[in-house]
Amino acid sequence: MSAYHPLTAEEAIQLAKSLPGRFPDQAELECREIGDGNLNLVFHVTAKHSDHSLIIKQAVPYAKVVGESWPLSLDRARIEREALEMEHSLCPALVPEVYGYSDEMAYTIMEDLSEYTIMRKGLIEGNSYPKFAEHIGEFLARTLFYTSDLGMNQQKKKELAGRFINPDLCKITEDLIFEDPYRDSPNNSYPDSIADEAEALRGDTELHFEVTLLRHKFLTQGQALLHGDLHTGSIFVRAESTKVIDPEFAFFGPMGFDIGAVIGNLLLNYAATPGWAADPKAQQLREQRLVQMSQDVWNHYERNFRQLWNADLLDEMSRTPGYQDHYVLQVLQDAAGYAGCKMIRRIVGLSHVIDIDTIADATAREAAQRKALAIGKNLVRHHRSIKSIDDVIELVKQASGN
Ligand code: SR1
Ligand code: MG
């Protein structure tokens, strides 16, 4: 019989104490459950009168956001931990360190990042993160290159892919991102004020065609080990430092899905900006910064990825002239399409973003929702004809009326 049960705060303290070297011997520990995500318990363990602390993240056997009626495999905790370890080995400065774990109890003990801010919150506050694009570009390039058939032994990759079969979490993505927004699903949620937009999405078969192509790639292309849910709520930031967390949706999928997640979430904040910055000058500055950041994310990714390809390519046939350019363009087109899908789902689907939903003024909120949908649809519709990141930005501006 399984020993699994949700931890109590007291048990979390005992676990933290049992880890050698993490707290001074006589330390008096305190613990708070701080999980505000959709799926897990998160315990923050701190020592009184010292700066020692850690995080214990534990999966529950259902989606917390919905309740016990939506069962989820506890194996996702192992998948998340192994993905964190893999990402940390490839990008030590950009991913928290794992201190301990139990697969049976579905928990991981890891570095506490409470001195950081969740990026989504920081962007809403109008903060700028000048190092972010460089950091995330490096994270994307290294994690995607070294877990693909380009940078990893191809037999090893197949074995590794077996450890990242993640059916429950992939199913969430397949439904919530690639299906529900385009049909009358009980999972969907949107205000009456944009019911016309939701209805239009359901009837737009040309858009459905493009979404179906992207969905098929998500279902079938095991290109690299993805983070799988790389939105701005899965990234901690400080002015000089970036940390990627929460890879429980990790699986082998198309590279563009992770890159598109980052760009789509920056663009959701861009669509929300008039709701947060009343002064037109401040608004314009924020919008320019977000567009530039989206562009820079791609540029840093591409530069790093090409460098890794030129230095560390294992696959001989991939040295064929012209193949690198073809490959990189394909990833850009995918990234733009997935960015669009991610924007659409956050407006009409089950799980929204606070960038938009917490805009106080109803008119500004509705304008942001419509702008996000317009950008998302434009990216999805035209993703296959994109030739450069400038084309992506042009599609964004065109849909925003800028
Ligand atoms: C039921 S989980 C809803 C969403 O939260 C996660 O962060 C993923 O984006 C998922 O789609
Ligand atoms: Mg998450």
Automatic annotation (TrEMBL):
<comment type="pathway">
    <text>Amino-acid biosynthesis; L-methionine biosynthesis via salvage pathway; S-methyl-5-thio-alpha-D-ribose 1-phosphate from S-methyl-5'-thioadenosine (hydrolase route): step 2/2.</text>
</comment>
<dbReference type="Pfam" id="PF01636">
    <property type="entry name" value="APH"/>
</dbReference>
<keyword id="KW-0547">Nucleotide-binding</keyword>
<feature type="domain" description="Aminoglycoside phosphotransferase">
    <location>
        <begin position="31"/>
        <end position="276"/>
    </location>
</feature>
<dbReference type="InterPro" id="IPR002575">
    <property type="entry name" value="Aminoglycoside_PTrfase"/>
</dbReference>
<protein>
    <recommendedName>
        <fullName>Methylthioribose kinase</fullName>
        <ecNumber>2.7.1.100</ecNumber>
    </recommendedName>
</protein>
<keyword id="KW-0418">Kinase</keyword>
<comment type="similarity">
    <text>Belongs to the methylthioribose kinase family.</text>
</comment>
<comment type="function">
    <text>Catalyzes the phosphorylation of methylthioribose into methylthioribose-1-phosphate.</text>
</comment>
<feature type="binding site">
    <location>
        <position position="229"/>
    </location>
    <ligand>
        <name>substrate</name>
    </ligand>
</feature>
<dbReference type="InterPro" id="IPR011009">
    <property type="entry name" value="Kinase-like_dom_sf"/>
</dbReference>
<feature type="binding site">
    <location>
        <position position="40"/>
    </location>
    <ligand>
        <name>ATP</name>
    </ligand>
</feature>
<feature type="binding site">
    <location>
        <position position="345"/>
    </location>
    <ligand>
        <name>substrate</name>
    </ligand>
</feature>
<dbReference type="InterPro" id="IPR009212">
    <property type="entry name" value="Methylthioribose_kinase"/>
</dbReference>
<keyword id="KW-0808">Transferase</keyword>
<comment type="subunit">
    <text>Homodimer.</text>
</comment>
<keyword id="KW-0028">Amino-acid biosynthesis</keyword>
<feature type="binding site">
    <location>
        <position position="57"/>
    </location>
    <ligand>
        <name>ATP</name>
    </ligand>
</feature>
<feature type="binding site">
    <location>
        <begin position="246"/>
        <end position="248"/>
    </location>
    <ligand>
        <name>ATP</name>
    </ligand>
</feature>
<keyword id="KW-0486">Methionine biosynthesis</keyword>
<keyword id="KW-0067">ATP-binding</keyword>
<dbReference type="GO" id="GO:0046522">
    <property type="term" value="F:S-methyl-5-thioribose kinase activity"/>
</dbReference>
<feature type="binding site">
    <location>
        <begin position="111"/>
        <end position="113"/>
    </location>
    <ligand>
        <name>ATP</name>
    </ligand>
</feature>
